[in-house]
Amino acid sequence: MTGSVWSDEQIARAALARLLEPLDNVGLALVAAAGPVEALQIATGATTCGPQVHRAFLEVLDASGHRVRTDVLIQAIARWQTRVGALAPLRDLETVRRFGGTLLIPESDWWPKALADLQLEEPMCLWVRGDNPAPIPSQERVVAVVGSRDSTSYGLEVTGDLAAGLVARGYTVVSGGAYGIDARAHRGALKAAREDHPLPTLSVLACGIDRYYPAGNEDLLREVAREGLLVSEVPPGSSPTRYRFLQRNRIIAALSSVTVVVEARWRSGALSTAHHAAGLGRSVGAVPGSVHSVNSAGCHRLLREGSAICVTDAAEVAELTGPLLAELEEKREDKPALHDGLVVEDLLLLDALPVRSSSTVDKLATVAGLSVPGVLAGLGRLETDGLAQRTDDGGWRKRSR
Amino acid sequence: MTGSVWSDEQIARAALARLLEPLDNVGLALVAAAGPVEALQIATGATTCGPQVHRAFLEVLDASGHRVRTDVLIQAIARWQTRVGALAPLRDLETVRRFGGTLLIPESDWWPKALADLQLEEPMCLWVRGDNPAPIPSQERVVAVVGSRDSTSYGLEVTGDLAAGLVARGYTVVSGGAYGIDARAHRGALKAAREDHPLPTLSVLACGIDRYYPAGNEDLLREVAREGLLVSEVPPGSSPTRYRFLQRNRIIAALSSVTVVVEARWRSGALSTAHHAAGLGRSVGAVPGSVHSVNSAGCHRLLREGSAICVTDAAEVAELTGPLLAELEEKREDKPALHDGLVVEDLLLLDALPVRSSSTVDKLATVAGLSVPGVLAGLGRLETDGLAQRTDDGGWRKRSR
């Protein structure tokens, strides 16, 4: 394989990505034990698995909590055999290069370190595509904005605002390229992107990065490829299956420091992304909505179960990305009310002061339940604060403002 | 004071309620140290405070975290002096009796035990009024439903549904009798009340129970007095001051096992009730709403800060009233999805099965990435589950449903 622009590891992982479905734990454990090049040889039957590698392989599975029979590898090799004939890693790599893309692997510099938190479930590789390829930022700068395909105008509006607000703050918005909330998240991010933003948005797809799925989002996905990145763990040409959709969600969650669910029904794929995020110790935000909207029921479920934090705008999402990197957000307008800081006696006195007529000190003492000296002292303080004023007849009233 | 239908403690507390504003800690500590009858004597200057009582009095203040000067009582007595001339406890008691009411005091059987959690801030007494007086139920059966005076149609609708749902489950709905959310909570409770419900709703007022405040709610408050209870810690004739409103909120919170805030602005009195409830270790529920609604901003603030649990209907509120008494609510519809419980291999296989055409076992093995025996076993399981079917040409496809 010398002479190729691709490293041996890239070629091996490209082949393994076609041989194995995402999250094939047996295959992933084999790679962890033997490295990608030897693992491919073993998986395709080109070589047999030595006892040392086999022991390491079983240990990896055991350490990640998988109780397996000792013949699990033999079974798996038989299972994989049906796909060996279709392997053509160099062709796949050329395909992705033709699209202006490349193959990221854990051994490469640009590999998003955040994915290591997936441990054994770390993807075999990531096929990425973008006209102006930029590295995927570290998780502190990445926020996932996800939600249902069927969405309300409310959900779409909030999504657009969130995505735009996050991009304006320098974050990269990750989503899944689906209809509804996902699509609006990408669109909002693209719309808000400025020249100097390295990567406003990226789509993690459940199909190959050479495909536009769903078809109605073709234009959008083309624009994401132009201005951002399309990313997938499955090789070019792969079709999006339900299984791949579910597995794809773990990558969205792992790339991001915060996963925000804008709208989701009581049962929704977007909740799976949220649960992945929570499982990884990432923050989860949920946008509240009407209790009458079935499209918010999943968000309210997350809030009620305590799996998510209530977020209502981009500033609140940014706060969740971490204390170190979250900018100093302007505090929400929280002006002290007129009467903040008054002692109880002065509050009583203020309540007792008439607005139009005037009152005497003695009468104020009775109404407010204060002593005469207490009233005099309080009136002095309230006058200083501009809350009380003397009247022409020598009495007191509230200061008109 | 013999011959009166009122006990000495009732008469003394009635007088003290007029002498002291709510939450006058010095007065409350004096009552805790000396009992109401002697405390009244001391407070009015009819007798002096002996050294033993004075020591106990200072200890009560100290124990409740109040750092005071030793002359605090002398100062207070001077302060109270302005109201001594106006004391007429028997007249006040007669007034409340004319309205079909009575005076509850901590010494009486019907005193709501839950108020003891307020410790030194426990009310001096409660003036109550109701045409069909029923005891205030223990806190497990009482839920506060509160919110802003300015409310949206959304907030009003949710409030009405919540109150009705709670009363239908046998709870008593407590609120503050104000415009907006409070009023709708009372109305929803009254509307849902059945003959056999002892107490659908009660209003804790910031003014005397002989007054209708706000005036626009007079009809409503009359109906609450007919079908439920009006309750106040301030004596008949008292006007509602801002100070009394704020203090009143602690009673609403203390009577209830759960305080639900339906709508509240970022700064709102309803939040003070929620904070009182949280401070007492009671549950707080917040109803979510549109992130664009300023009337929901306070609820979202509570959710975000973790002070409240997200509630969207009466069943979810009922769950918060405690594990012992919350009925077994019908679980929200949560049918297993078609594909729940399938192993990963079967999910892959299901994804690989065509819907209209048919596929061979070998092709399925390649597409799904499974071995041929694995496909055969999986097809058997899927056929049993009604998810796969044989085609006339000997192949397989998804079962049409």
Kindly report the oligomeric state of this protein. Answer: homodimer
Portion of residues in beta strands of chain A equals 5-15%
Write down the overall mean pLDDT of chain A: 91
Provide the gyration radius of chain A in Å. Answer: 30 Å
Provide a count of the helices of chain A: 15
Instruction: List SSEs of chain A in N-to-C order.
Output: HHHHHEEEHEHEHEHEHEHEHHHHEE
Q: Which topology of the largest domain in chain A does CATH recognise?
A: Rossmann fold
Give the strand order of the largest sheet of chain A, numbering strands 1, 2, ... along the chain: 1-2-6-5-4-3-7-8-9
Q: Based on DSSP secondary structure assignment, what is the total number of beta strands of chain A?
A: 11
Straight-line distance between termini of chain A: 84 Å
Shape assignment of chain A: elongated
Count of discrete structural domains of chain A: 3
Helix content of chain A: 40-55%
Biggest sheet features of chain A: 9 strands, mixed
Q: Identify the CATH architecture of the largest domain in chain A.
A: 3-Layer(aba) Sandwich
Task: Extract low-pLDDT stretches of chain A.
Answer: 324-336
What structural category arises from helix and sheet content of chain A?
A: alpha/beta
Classified by CATH, the class of the largest domain in chain A is: Alpha Beta
Q: Name the chain pair with the biggest interface and residue counts per chain.
A: A-B, 61 and 62 residues
InterPro entries (chains A, B): DprA, DrpA_SLOG
Family (chains A, B): Belongs to the DprA/Smf family.
Organism (chains A, B): Arthrobacter parietis
Protein name (chains A, B): DNA-processing protein DprA
